[in-house]
């Protein structure tokens, strides 16, 4: 709160309290504002792909997930803290995070992400939907965790980071995300899935990615 007040050139928390009333309302505004920036870029990316009949591959969809989520900082050569912010909220304050997101429907600022998930389901018809839904959850967790570490590493100094600053790092990250979706289910997974009860399967399908 003090950092925000100082950055806004204010002397005390009065203006924040006036506009947002509660810290929770301020956190919600930060979640939505960053989400909308990513969503606008992601929707534009998807619009271009769909205009020519795409996306045709899983990789194209994953690129639409990754590239809009980086470079959010206003100044050049800086990294945003947004992905870290929402990742830490969901990890350490999950009840608060989910409650805030549910209060402010994500349909208005997370359309691009949901469009990507629908394309991935379309492109992977041979993977049972329950297993694919799990992979979509894994994919989101993996993406947020990886980009959070990247944001933190790139913030540490002015010199390019030897790992996260390399030109091949993000393409390689996309490679691994592609593998999460496209890897055929193992015999162990298929056997365990076949043994699952209809109730378990129905419950799993009811949990959104």
Write the layout of secondary structure elements.
Layout: H1 2-7, H2 14-20, H3 23-51, H4 58-66, H5 82-92, H6 94-103, H7 111-123, H8 129-155, H9 169-182, H10 187-195, H11 198-205
Helix pairs in contact: 3-4, 3-6, 3-7, 4-7, 4-9, 5-6, 5-8, 8-9
Structure, explained:
There is one protein chain. With 209 residues, the protein is mostly helical. It has helices spanning 2-7, 14-20, 23-51, 58-66, 82-92, 94-103, 111-123, 129-155, 169-182, 187-195, 198-205. The mean pLDDT is 84.
Observed structural traits:
11 helices; globular; Tetracycline Repressor, domain 2; mainly alpha; single chain; 209 residues
Summarize the structure in short.
The protein is mainly α and 209 residues long. The protein is 68% helix and 0% strand.
Second CATH tier, the architecture: Orthogonal Bundle
The helical percent reads 55-70%
- Report the CATH C-level class: Mainly Alpha
CATH topology label? Tetracycline Repressor, domain 2
**Helix/strand structural class:** mainly alpha
- Give the uncertain stretches in residue-range form: none
């Amino acid at each position: 709160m003090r950092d925000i007040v100082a950055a806004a050139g204010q002397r005390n928390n009065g203006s924040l309290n006036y506009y947002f009333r509660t810290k929770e309302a301020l956190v919600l505004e930060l979640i939505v504002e960053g989400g909308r920036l990513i969503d606008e870029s992601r929707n534009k990316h998807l619009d271009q792909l769909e205009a020519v009949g795409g996306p045709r591959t899983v990789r194209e969809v994953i690129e639409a997930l990754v590239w809009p989520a980086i470079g959010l900082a206003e100044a050049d050569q800086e990294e945003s803290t947004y992905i870290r912010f929402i990742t830490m909220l969901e990890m350490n304050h999950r009840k608060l995070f989910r409650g805030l997101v549910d209060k402010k429907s994500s349909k208005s600022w997370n359309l691009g992400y949901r469009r990507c998930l629908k394309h991935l389901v379309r492109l992977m018809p041979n993977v049972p939907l329950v297993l694919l839904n799990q992979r979509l959850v894994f994919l989101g967790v993996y993406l947020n965790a990886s980009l959070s570490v990247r944001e933190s590493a790139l913030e540490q100094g002015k010199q390019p980071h030897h790992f996260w600053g390399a030109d091949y790092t993000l393409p390689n990250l996309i490679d691994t995300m592609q593998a999460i979706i496209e890897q055929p289910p193992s015999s162990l997974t298929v056997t365990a899935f076949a043994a699952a009860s209809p109730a378990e399967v129905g419950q799993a399908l009811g949990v959104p990615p």
